[in-house]
Specification:
Blueprint lengths: L6 H5 L10 H6 L12 H9 L12 H16 L1 H5 L7 E2 L5 E2 L3
Antiparallel strand pairs: 1-2
Amino acid sequence: MPVPAQDLFQSRLGYSGTGYPWSINEAKGIRYDYDPARFPAAQKLCDTYTIVHGIHAPNGSELMDRIAEGFGKVFADLPAALVYADDPIYPGADGAVYGAG
């Protein structure tokens, strides 16, 4: 999802629920608009590219092999996967995927 759509920016809870840093500037009359619709290029990037997170130490080649295998399975039967292409999916802050299946 685009950065402005992420929980941190939508909730503006800030550090320890204080609203900081937004509260400081909003007290000065500065307003923020994190409506994801204002960032169509970011949304297009998210809709058309895949980024694999978690490929860093201590993860190694075994994890990369498993991820590549997963991509291979999907692309081996792409028509079956595309049936679900327009299903809404929402990545949560806890790393879980919601709305899928």
